[in-house]
Amino acid sequence: MDLQTMTYLVVGASFALYIGIAIWARAGSTSEFYAAGGSVHPITNGMATAADWMSAASFISMAGLIANMGYGGGLFLMGWTGGYVLLAMLLAPYLRKFGKFTVPQFIGDRFYSQTASTVAVICLLTASITYIIGQMTGVGVAFSRFLGVSSDTGIYIGMGIVFAYAVFGGMKGITYTQVAQYIVLILAYTVPAMFISLQLTGNPIPQLGLGSNISGTDISLLQKLDQVVTDLGFGQYTTSVPGSTLNMFVYTMSLMIGTAGLPHVIMRFFTVAKVSDARSSAGWALVFIAILYTTAPAVGAMAKLNLHGTVNTAVGLQTAADGSMVVNADAVKANADVFATEASLVYEQRPEWMKRWEKTGLLKFEDKNGDGRIQYYNDKTKSADAKAKAEAAGWKGNELTVNADIIVLANPEIALLPNWVIALVAAGGLAAALSTAAGLLMAISAAVSHDLVKGVFMPNISEQAELRAGKISMAVAIVIAGYLGLNPPGFAAGTVALAFGIAASSLFPAIMMGIFSKKMNKEGAIAGMLAGLFVTLFYVFAHKGIFFIKGTDFVDMIGGANSFFGITPEAFGAIGALVNFAVAFVVDKMTKEPPEHIQHMVENVRIPRGAKAVDGAH
């Protein structure tokens, strides 16, 4: 069966499964719509949380960024995983014990203020919509390649699919759909990784393959990759750091505390029956997440080596008679000259996968020296040796532009794996993007219908009217996210990092102070959230444009790009969080402390006797 037909069948079957589950598990009440009735098993919830958590950024973009950034790309692994541990240990059990549907509801009740709840809704909507842009970018990338449509058309199709199962199924439908999506995405991620690890190192376990020798040689995979990329003017793969060490540290912290403040993940802990189940499901989710996150570094490194091996024969990879990619051990050991004329791939002899990706515009070739061959190297290198060799070889600049978001999706094609594996990856990429988009839409819907409409404007609204408001707000959010997804501010993972920064600077400090500081009052919390959000958005919009609209950036006004100690906008959330904490504590000291009953409530929530069931009434 040809690749296109196989892809249509696999992706179509997965979509039919998701919509079928949503119809089977559709929500009939607000409790089922917002929290799946509080009856989800911890292992099931752990799997759904993992799917909710592992977005297009994790599946599609993270390994691509690791492939591009090398060692420095590990900050995504450390930040996101560390943040999840922080969330599971410090926030989720207490929030579940508090027994509320949403983060704004917790903030509103804890800080005894409708205004605090409304500010939290604004922060939540800003972070969640930014996050969905990243998912829609990923959906567009996957659809454009695998269904042979434009990226824009892919986003429209994705909007329709999410609308179908998120709006009708609510949290109950989303939960069971996400279990199916986790199974699809984890198979789609690990199966190709095992194939490629076996091809390159003879070891089928990617995590071990990353540290193994290349088949038939005594040269380790990472050693060979370091040699290839440094020869071609790139930074050493195993030591490269993005920007300064300070920026890397702040970036990691921003991702970490942003994770702990993400409302769509926190909401998942309200779907279980007991506080002990919340802890248990957090542990299970970490196990399910670890399967992908420990595989990602291997996927990134192996994809990088395969890509260089495809366009430069001196690397030592070649195509076998059966069409698969194999290691030429002698060539690997020979350390042949990557600048030799015959080493560069003749453009007309490029493999089919390159032709397919060129149609999407995410892979581009420009023959700068007119020799009909592909020269892929770092033409902005600071290495005098690499520069001199490139000039001597007659190279006039890098000729291949590879979008970081295609690395994982193209990986099985680069490695010339069977068609069914490539089709599985297409389904997995879409499952990752759609599962997180659905979770975010659920958080947006709950914030608008439950916290704004019912909590502020219409306290006596009927359950059916509230459900209707939730579905309408979800539909509007899908349209806004789709529109912004057509004009994203950057790579999927870069856009998602901005969302984490917004959550880190606004919601995380308020939740932490709400749980662990019984003296924090409403004035401090509100001032802190607004200050953190404003400072972060000001810095982000200066670089990316106001509300990410191209041409509205004002980076010169702040003294140039990354002008604050070299910190990038994606990493600025941690600085915003510090501002949030500082402003909150200053304002708190200048205003009166919370009422006595609020302080007692905070103490009761923190007492660790939450194994018994918590009243699920809301």
List the helices and strands and how they pair.
Elements: H1 3-24, H2 30-35, H3 42-53, H4 56-69, H5 74-98, H6 103-110, H7 114-146, H8 151-201, H9 206-209, H10 221-231, H11 245-260, H12 263-266, H13 275-293, H14 296-311, E1 317-319, E2 325-327, H15 329-334, H16 352-358, E3 363-365, H17 384-392, E4 400-402, H18 407-414, H19 419-457, H20 463-486, H21 492-516, H22 522-544, H23 573-590, H24 596-606
Antiparallel strand pairs: 1-2, 3-4
Helix pairs in contact: 1-8, 1-19, 3-8, 3-13, 4-7, 4-14, 4-19, 4-21, 5-11, 5-13, 6-7, 6-21, 7-8, 7-19, 7-20, 7-21, 7-22, 8-19, 8-20, 10-14, 11-21, 11-23, 14-18, 18-19, 19-20, 21-22, 21-23, 22-23
